[in-house]
Backbone:
């Protein structure tokens, strides 16, 4: 049988895998994403797994345990669903200087990646409409931003960061 904490706030989950033995005994263990029987010999291990790395993307993940005896007989899969909820990145923006006559301003971004997956892009704009993770406008970390020509006055620049998990920061 297979158990794990649920939900998970980490990609790496701890698992408790046990198998019942026939008269031949368990020789190999395989823990896989999804429910498909493992096809690669590298999927099979000599001992019970104790952890598993979930695929990227928050939401429900299915993990299945298979065991094989010395005669090559493979068990039916024992599956669990784990709801992965990695925290989103955070980003703060400092514009230097805060008063300027130029349309281009220097930026100082402070970003954190509590999920530890890595930051893959940033979007800056003068609208507070949150971008989707699949939007095409994600760019490497910017050091400046050029505002559209507008009348003098106070301007607000919004910034979002996206991590490899596909999570987008809040404003």
Residues:
């Amino acid at each position: 049988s297979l158990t794990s904490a649920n939900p998970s706030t980490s990609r790496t989950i701890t698992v408790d895998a046990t198998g019942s033995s026939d008269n031949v005994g368990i020789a190999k263990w395989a823990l896989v994403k999804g429910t498909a029987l493992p096809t690669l010999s590298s999927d099979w291990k000599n001992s019970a797994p104790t952890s598993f790395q979930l695929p990227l993307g928050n939401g429900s993940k299915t993990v299945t345990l298979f065991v094989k005896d010395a005669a090559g007989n493979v068990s039916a899969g024992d599956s669990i669903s784990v709801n992965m909820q990695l925290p989103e990145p955070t980003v703060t923006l400092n514009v230097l200087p805060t008063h300027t006559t130029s349309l281009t301003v220097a930026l100082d971004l402070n970003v954190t990646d509590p999920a530890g997956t890595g930051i893959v892009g940033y979007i800056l704009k003068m609208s507070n409409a949150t971008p989707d993770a699949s939007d095409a406008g994600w760019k490497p970390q910017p050091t400046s931003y050029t505002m559209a020509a507008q009348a003098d006055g106070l301007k607000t620049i919004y910034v979002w960061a996206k991590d490899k998990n596909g999570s987008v920061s809040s404003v």
